[in-house]
Amino acid sequence: MWFGCVIAGSFLLNACSISPNSIITKPNTAKPEAAQMQPAKNGSIFVASAYRPMFEDRRPRFVGDILTINIVENTTAAKTGANKTSKAGSVKSSITSFFGSPVPRAAFETASDSSFDDKANSDASNKFNGTVGVTVVEVLANGNLVVSGEKQIAFDKGTEFVRFSGVVNPDSVTQGNVVPSNRVADARIEYRSNTQIDTAQIVSILSRFFFSFIPL
């Protein structure tokens, strides 16, 4: 009977999927603002409506412009703790008489010794490399750019999400409009997936659950 319950539970959970919660609160993209059209003014040398600086670069600086974030994150943390205590004690006593009657000299001696030694080590290491395109969603008063973007990669039974948001200093933009992630302030980087739960994993979990109630 328990096997039938396992199979039924697997069919019920087979279509379930995990929807990851995003840490990105800002919009993932923004459309560029409509440019204000100036009336054409004819001149013999200078035409204001067709003006464009000769040495102007194409670095993003307006809402809707696109940058490429080069994600190069590598963090390592380690923690070690130790605790050691010890305690020792002894008791000695002797009896020379019992209810007024002399008794042979008797002595009692007890000793105790206890110690406690505890050590703990914890290590964590994370490495994340990749690229994601982002859009300027806001231009701050000091010229810094608030950027946000998302990349989705769909596989057979699920989708992987790469999301990024942060504040970029225009001076940090390199050739090709690329910015390394370690030069972005208030950076939020996430890599999540939305995949269906594997049937074999469900059966394994339910089997262990039902076997815990069945004496062997």
Description:
This protein has a 6-stranded mixed beta sheet, with no helix packed on it. 12% of the residues lie in helices and 50% in strands. α1 packs antiparallel against α2. The relative contact order is 0.23. The two termini are 16 Å apart. It has 2 domains: 1-16 and 197-216; 19-77 and 124-195, no CATH class. By secondary structure, it is mainly beta. It is elongated. The mean pLDDT is 74.
Outline of the structure:
The chain is mostly beta strands and 216 residues long. The chain folds into two domains: 1-16 and 197-216; 19-77 and 124-195, no CATH class.
Strand and helix layout:
Blueprint: H1 2-14, E1 66-98, E2 101-139, E3 145-154, E4 158-168, E5 178-180, E6 185-195, H2 199-211
Parallel strand pairs: 1-5
Antiparallel strand pairs: 1-2, 2-3, 3-4, 4-6
Helix pairs in contact: 1-2
